[in-house]
Amino acid sequence: MKKITSWLSILLLTGILAACNTTTGSENTSSEQPPDTEVSETTSGNTSETLEGTLVESDSQNYSITVVDGFELTGEEPNKDMLMYTANNQQSMRIETFDISEVNISDITSDVLAGIEASNEQEEAVEITDEVLLPSGEGIVDVKGFQIKTNDGNVSGYAYEKGDLIVKLTIFDLTKEPLTKTFIQMAETISSK
């Protein structure tokens, strides 16, 4: 009787261990995704409503922005802020805002393109047409974006209107583990104070 009980216990434990290994294996497989997969999923479509972060007001400009964990908004110079990725300051977004009554979108768009082209004179800037890489959402109109390759990644520039603001963005990103979509997601939350 003891042999049968021992034998059944061994079989039961073997079955449990096998089941545990199978579950663990499938969990490992599902978590081993490319680094930007999660970002792609969270930035597709209009995501500004679901963005989780801290609402931060600019010290030198008339706007607020939702900043997600791992990023920090700081003043770069008067009327220019930098939204920095704290783990790597080579990945950042310069933010400039203008009162819509004082400037026009075509001048800011031309300025964006000139700034992008100055980032790398050996490359040609291209217009961004991929909707996932363009700011969108409620109140955002007249969006134009341009991008140019650099040695380590890309520099992207954007101009758009939102409410009584014209927003000008310059995103400095790396080819390895890019964060452009995350920066755009945060930029979509920019609004007047």
Distinctive features:
disordered N terminus, 4 helices, alpha+beta, 193 residues, 3-stranded antiparallel β-sheet
Can you walk me through this structure?
- It is a single chain.
- By secondary structure, this protein is an alpha+beta fold.
- Helices cover 31% and strands 33% of the residues.
- The protein contains 4 helices and 10 strands; from the N terminus they run H-H-E-E-E-E-E-H-E-E-E-E-H-E.
- It has helices spanning 2-31, 37-43, 105-119, 180-187, and strands at 54-57, 63-67, 71-77, 80-85, 92-99, 126-127, 140-149, 153-162, 165-174, 191-192.
- It has a 7-stranded antiparallel sheet, with helices on both faces. A 3-stranded antiparallel sheet has the order 1-2-10, with no helix packed on it.
- Helix 2 (37-43) runs parallel beside helix 4.
- The longest helix is centred in the N-terminal third of the chain and has 30 residues, at 2-31.
- The protein is globular.
- The chain starts with a helix and ends with a strand.
- Mean pLDDT is 81; it is low at 2-48.
Oligomer: single chain
- Summed over residues and divided by their number, the pLDDT gives a mean of 81
CA distance, first residue to last residue: 79 Å
What share of the residues lie within helices? 25-40%
State the order of secondary-structure elements, H for helix, E for strand.
HHEEEEEHEEEEHE
Spatial sequence of strands, sheet with the most strands: 3-4-5-9-8-7-6
- Sequence stretches where pLDDT stays below 50 over 5 or more residues: 2-48
Radius of gyration: 24 Å
Per DSSP, what share of the residues sits in E-state strands of 2 or more residues? 25-35%
Q: What structural category characterises the helix and strand content?
A: alpha+beta
